[in-house]
Design goal:
The chain has about 350 residues and is α/β, with parallel strands linked by helices. The chain has ten helices and 15 strands.
Length: about 350
């Protein structure tokens, strides 16, 4: 019987502010890479893991999100943390999987995952793409961008689109989808380097560094003199207020994330509800998991655009299980460009 040391990351205690290295612990345990007769478990060697800002809400001692979605249940200090990822089956008692299969599903922040009966796991056809793409651009980040833009915002060609956190895992794809669809797109980000990526690599019509702006309402008025049709919100807070101030009549807002509010309870958005009423603005929150019915459409469209070079993947990859805490923390310090992924092992 082969045994391995499985290293995995936990939180030491609930995290109620901005995450710090000291909040996390790298633990290890011995794992047998064989299953008892009659077991229907699957043991997966983790290869690429998704690192996402929403996990901070699961780490808090309390967040209303923990009761609203099965994806967002509270994380228990000391226990392994689940996340979306791609791996390789090393042992299987489940007839659907065999040793050597490449799989995607809910894995752990660690080197191995034991998937129990009923766990979320599917065989993955990499379609010739790097496995990391299936954690980001062809995974839930991509689906959030695709479904949020096309299903929630319901764009029309020529409309004016504003994307916040536009160099993040979802925002960068929203901007690219919007450009391919025929919209005018402006994004904001937090460094000159990110702004350059948006304009030069991803083809945004314009972009700005919000940290260089003093008053967001007048900034958006400058970039959208005739108003905004669609605002894709990844930030919340002051940016959401300014966008609503600049929306056109019948404007649509998809609220995908509010990262400015995750670690700072003092900054909730206070949008003008008079504007929302008189401009007939539609504001809708959504989760990628609500839109699994369009996953096949999303996958075929996105993979076609990747093959023809119309979509540029934007990835920020760290190496090794021990880098998970710093990779996670980097999201809240604006240090990532694109989808944050941790590569745990080679295939």
């Amino acid at each position: 019987m082969d045994n391995v040391i499985n290293r995995y990351v936990t939180i030491k205690t609930h995290v109620d502010g901005a995450p710090q290295e000291s909040d996390f612990e790298l633990k290890s345990s011995t794992l047998a890479l064989s299953l008892d007769p009659g077991s229907n478990e699957v043991i997966v060697k983790n290869l690429h893991l998704s690192v996402d800002p929403y996990q901070i809400n699961r780490m808090k001692s309390y967040s209303s999100s923990q009761k609203s979605s099965s994806y967002a249940v509270a994380i228990i200090p000391g226990e392994a943390i689940d996340t979306y990822g791609v791996g390789k089956v090393v042992a299987s008692g489940n007839p659907k999987f065999e040793k050597g299969d490449i799989v995607a599903g809910l894995l752990k922040w660690g080197e191995y995952t034991v998937i129990k009966a009923g766990g979320t796991l599917n065989k993955l056809n990499p379609m010739g793409f790097p496995l990391s793409y299936h954690v980001g651009i062809l995974g839930f980040s991509g689906l959030a961008a695709y479904a949020g833009f096309f299903k929630v915002c319901k764009p029309k060609k020529g409309e004016k689109v504003f994307v916040s956190a536009a160099s993040g895992s979802v925002g960068n794809l929203v901007g690219q989808f919007a450009k391919l669809f025929g919209c005018y797109v402006v994004g904001c980000a937090g460094t000159k380097e990110k702004v350059a990526v948006l304009k030069e690599k991803l083809g945004f019509d314009d972009a700005f560094n919000y940290k260089e702006e003093t008053e967001m309402k007048s900034t958006l008025k400058r970039y959208f003199p005739d108003g905004i049709d669609i605002y894709f919100d990844n930030v919340g807070g002051e940016m959401q207020e300014a966008a609503i101030d600049n929306m056109k009549i019948n404007g649509r807002i998809a609220v995908c994330g509010v990262i400015s509010e995750y670690t700072d309870a003092e900054k909730p958005a206070a949008p003008s509800m008079i504007d929302v009423i008189y401009k007939r603005i539609k504001i809708q929150g959504f989760l990628a998991g609500d839109h699994l019915n369009v996953f096949a459409d999303f996958l075929s469209t996105t993979s076609d655009h990747l093959l023809t070079g119309k979509l540029q993947p934007l990835e920020d990859i760290s190496d090794g299980v021990e880098s998970i805490p710093s990779a996670f923390i980097s999201l809240f310090r604006g240090q990532n460009i694109g989808k944050k992924i941790v590569k745990i092992a080679e295939e």
